[in-house]
Write the structure tokens for this entry.
Amino acid sequence: MRTVIVRGHSPLPEALRDVIERGSTSVQECRVPGPTPLPRDVDRVVYFLAGPDPDVIASARQAISSERKDATDKLVYVMADDAPGVEGLSPNDCFRWPADEDRLKMAFMTSA
């Protein structure tokens, strides 16, 4: 699985990075704001939201809309426990970090 991580100002927790890397064949990281060129041949895009980061929220909203139009299923939303919800994304469609660590590990290990 080729994975792209989209994040804002906050770095990924090392344990989360480890889960993503173990369940991926390659990992590329993009930061918002700024250009976030996503390769077309990517298998999975992980959005990481830590706290109220409006740039990541805007990017995630756009991705949610695009995913529904394209009927693709390659987006993964991981939010820190203190991060706000994202409009259009149900709580069942995202992982809370670190509360959902075991569930996220299973998702990454079974789809890699």
